[in-house]
Specification:
single chain; 186 residues; 0% strand
Length: 186
């Protein structure tokens, strides 16, 4: 690997770790460069701007089809595995923390929403063949993540436990269950 490629990769990794664990607006290009042990001007050279570096980190988010393509049952298995395997130590980045921290950011929020729709929502809708159920899966996915990271609800079992996995399966299965037709937002 060339020295330039190594430096670019270090900048990308530092951007991913910082943007995904602290949020786009809470991170400076100087901080990224310092973390990567690189000159700040190299962010512009390799990525063009802070925002383009952020967008490059979105390419590192795996799409749902990579995780669970076959059908609703394997989708539930993959979503449970996503939660079980998610990094939980403070400061460790995960795709869910990326979304929660950046989706409302005035500079990159729409970029995050578009990436989520492309990599996660549209594939879930196709897998379950129902946009309403796909939206409910997203609500569970993001709601559980928010509840776990922020609310520390005592009724949610410890991550990694059998009870935790059972709770996740129950919530995802409920999102897929037949029920009343969703109400239109129009």
């Amino acid at each position: 690997m060339t020295k330039g490629r190594e430096t670019r990769d270090r900048l990308l990794d530092a951007g991913r770790r910082l943007f995904w664990s602290r949020g786009y607006s809470n991170v400076s290009v100087r901080e990224i460069a310092q973390t990567a042990e690189a000159d700040v001007a190299l962010i512009s050279r390799y990525f063009g701007s802070k925002q383009k570096l952020f967008e490059a980190t979105l390419d590192l988010v795996p799409g749902i089809e990579i995780c669970a393509p076959a059908g609703p049952d394997t989708l539930v298995d993959a979503l449970v595995e996503l939660f079980v395997a998610a990094p939980r130590a403070a400061g460790l980045p995960s795709p869910l923390s990326l979304i929660l921290l950046n989706v409302r950011d005035p500079e990159v929020g729409e970029i995050v929403r578009a990436a989520y729709r492309r990599k996660w929502q549209a594939p879930m809708d196709r897998i379950v063949d129902d946009p309403g159920k796909g939206a409910l899966l997203s609500a569970v996915l993001l709601g559980v993540s928010l509840a776990e990271k922020s609310l520390e609800l005592p009724g949610i079992a410890a991550p990694g436990s059998a009870c935790y996995e059972a709770q996740l399966r129950r919530m995802f299965a409920a999102a897929l269950a037949d029920g009343p037709e969703p109400v239109s937002r129009a």
